[in-house]
Recover the amino acids of this structure.
């Protein structure tokens, strides 16, 4: 079966969720990747490691304009006779996959968390991660958008061939005047480990210990919404229903109550550790491990313990 997977290689970098999408596509059939922009051939050829045999690249336009990308992916799908097109369910995937489904007359399955079962039904995440459903597309062509961090990236070896092509992307009515990228070593949506804190920290001056813990663990930092609203932390760190949705391997929530709107963005985390003074805090119900205690006592001890462990291992 011919599978096409869209790769966001903007900024000459391929994000982990694109490698996940290739890994996923490889489980369905023969994979061709499609992208646009100016990424180095060596970087694109790396997609072969995860199972793409070829990369189609349209060098005629840069950026993530969803209308141009929709046209380009539709052209590529036609060219390779793709039966299924796979996206990562990130910002670009969320915008392009529905447009493409109309253009290709293909059934769209979004927020997939696993591969299709024998009868073609795909597990998907619903109600902000509170439940899952099995969805089947009865169309001959299908589009699947894969929720980031749903499956581990798998290396299968190999190098993809690169073919430049004209994706008929056309013009764009959108003018990008500048791009502000969040600073920080580890982008939050890609982080495997996240240390997060809430209003229990009392003020921005107390975030030093949160950063120390994140640094000791090699984790990204996050926060609850009121913390970002009060400008204690930047808005790109706010996780939850109205913030970034994350699914790290470890989420440490410090001084966060665990309101449903916060949980909606983090309850896909593999392991949740909660530190809170209030043993009745709702977050403990969602936690795998909990510490009932004062963050100002517990966190510095945790930092010390992590550093000691790392030094002796
Ligand atoms: C439409 C809508 C959308 C929303 N979207 C989001 C969202 O995306 N993300 C989000 O986070 N919120 C969101 N909210 C807000 C959400 O409902 C909660 O108000 C918010 O998550 C609470 O933040 P918090 O837990 O940091 O603060 P609080 O509710 O004030 O909780 C602070 C916690 O810290 C504990 N604490 C206090 N002192 C200490 C200490 N010394 N050590 C340890 N623990 C301590 C307390 O026991 C308490 O549990 C949304 C709300 C609405 C209405």
């Amino acid at each position: 079966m011919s599978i096409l997977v869209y790769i966001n290689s903007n900024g000459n970098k391929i994000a982990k969720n694109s490698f996940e999408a290739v890994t996923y596509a490889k489980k369905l059939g023969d994979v061709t990747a499609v992208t646009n922009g100016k990424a180095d051939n060596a970087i694109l050829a790396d997609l072969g490691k995860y199972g793409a045999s070829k990369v189609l690249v349209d060098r005629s336009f840069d950026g993530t304009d969803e209308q141009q990308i929709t046209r380009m992916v539709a052209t590529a799908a036609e060219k390779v006779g793709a039966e299924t097109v796979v996206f990562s369910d990130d910002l670009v995937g969320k915008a392009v996959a529905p447009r493409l489904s109309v253009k290709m007359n293909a059934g769209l399955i979004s927020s997939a968390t696993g591969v299709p079962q024998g009868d073609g039904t795909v597990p998907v995440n619903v109600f902000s991660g509170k439940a899952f459903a099995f969805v089947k597309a009865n169309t001959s062509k299908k589009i699947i958008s894969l929720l980031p961090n749903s499956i581990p990236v798998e290396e299968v070896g190999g190098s993809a061939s690169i073919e430049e092509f004209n994706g008929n992307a056309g013009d764009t009515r959108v003018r990008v005047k500048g791009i502000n990228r969040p600073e920080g070593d580890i982008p939050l949506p890609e982080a495997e480990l996240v240390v997060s804190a809430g209003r229990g920290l009392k003020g921005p001056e107390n975030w030093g210990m949160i950063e120390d813990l994140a640094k000791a663990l090699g984790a990204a930092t996050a926060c609850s919404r009121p913390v970002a609203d009060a400008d204690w932390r930047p808005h790109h760190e706010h996780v939850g229903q109205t913030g970034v949705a994350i699914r790290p391997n470890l989420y440490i929530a410090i001084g966060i109550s665990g309101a449903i709107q916060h949980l909606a963005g983090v309850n896909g985390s593999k392991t949740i550790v909660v530190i809170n003074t209030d043993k009745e805090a709702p977050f403990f119900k969602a936690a795998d491990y909990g510490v009932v205690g004062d963050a100002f006592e517990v966190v510095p001890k945790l930092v010390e313990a992590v550093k000691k462990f790392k030094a002796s291992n």
The pocket of flavin-adenine dinucleotide is lined by residues 198-200, 224-227, 238, 240-243, 255-257, 259, 261-262, 265, 275-278, 281, 294-296 (CB under 6 Å). The two ends are 46 Å apart (CA to CA). Residues 295-311 form the longest helix (17 residues). The chain is about 30% helix and 25% strand.
